[in-house]
Amino acid sequence: MQSPFKYFLLLTLLAGITAEAAEVSGTLKPEFSITDQPLPDSSLTYVFKVPLRLMLQHRTGNLSFNVAWILSPSAGNPALGGEDLTHAFRLADPESRIFPAEWNGDEAFSILQDIDRLSIGLRTPFTTLTVGRQAIYWGVAKSVSPTDFIAPFQYGTLDTEYRTGVDAVRSVVPIGMMSELDAGYIFGKDARFTDSGCWLRGRFYLLRTDATLLAACFRENLMIGGSLNRSIGDGTGWMECALVSTGFFSRSRNEETFWSLSAGYDRSWLNAALYGFLEYHFSSSGTDNPEDYTCIIADSARMTGGVYLLGKHYLSPGTRWSVTPLLYFTGQALLNLTDGSANLSITSEYSISQNSVINAGISRGLGRIPNNTEGDAGSEFGMWPGYYFLSAGYYF
Questions:
Q1: Which of 119, 280, 294, 354 is the most buried (most CB within 10 A)?
Q2: Would you say 359 and 347 are in contact if contact means Cβ atoms under 8 Å apart?
Q3: What CA–CA distance (Å, rounded) separates 116 from 97?
Q4: Distance of alpha carbon 88 from its chain centroid, rounded?
Q5: Structural contact between residues 314 and 143, judged by C-beta atoms closer than 8 angstroms
Q6: Residues 345, 359, 390, 27: what is their CA dihedral angle, to the nearest 10 degrees?
Q7: β-strands 235-246, 221-232: how paired?
Q8: 16, 54 contact by CB (below 8 A)
Q9: What are the residue ranges spanned by the domains of the chain?
């Protein structure tokens, strides 16, 4: 860990721990999961992990402190080797793996750590300034968010309770009722400009519509985008879009421009016991021909532009059913309208007590698997693995 980062962590911890009104909380979430890789690999792996997340928050006057540290022992075939945060917007990190010291890829036990929050906030009558590791996200889309480029969840991620923290300086200035200006700079590894970014975002409430405008630079790419969100009838409609020019700020000027859009509508029934939505997503950087998937998988849109889907047209239906106030089920799918494949996820949660819950879920790709002997290119989601989990969470 670099020395400035280490001292900043130490000062923040001391400030929080010695404060009279410091609030310490945490989560303990044991989880057993199975991952089923499709053919030709056809491997089945399992992992049992017990992540402990400790959080410290304190506010004194106009200052606030926020720290979160995750300790995660795991066992499996293999155990967890550590999340690859090489491309995350972070200046520096301690070694993520505490044990073992050497990793061959097939160890049955490991202990990992992560400093996920480490920030100081200052609130004034004119702005709220936050410096350090924090969660930054926006966007109104339910499936794929075109403007959420900082630390997005890939579609199919089941545990979305906490966003990955990024290192940033952020200022939010209120400019009216439900309106604000949001600006900041996010730091990549060693503060290199090629790995960093900045943004200016405005949120406005006009004609009973929540509207945003965004201009951003990240990893030498330029993004211009925004969103609209308003009540329509008994539900809510939204639209979010972004135009990205990869390599716009690069000396090589090797530019590729693409745009993406997500639009949808949701509403609830039966006194909010049943909720549903339908969303359409378009990506101009994708292809309508499955045989071209291997050609575009390494282009600039997917390597640095934040795109991971391969097709152009997608449809995402989703629902949530509250069986009782303590038990609910959610289901969502993302369908590639060109090749007919889909990724399906189903989760459930049951509240045992005020501080304890049980979760279960599956996420699986459905579609044709490539057959090289017959020249079949297969489908996009046919190669996505299946993921099944059962977990229990305790909040304290």
A1: 119
A2: yes
A3: 14
A4: 11
A5: yes
A6: 120
A7: antiparallel
A8: no
A9: 3-395
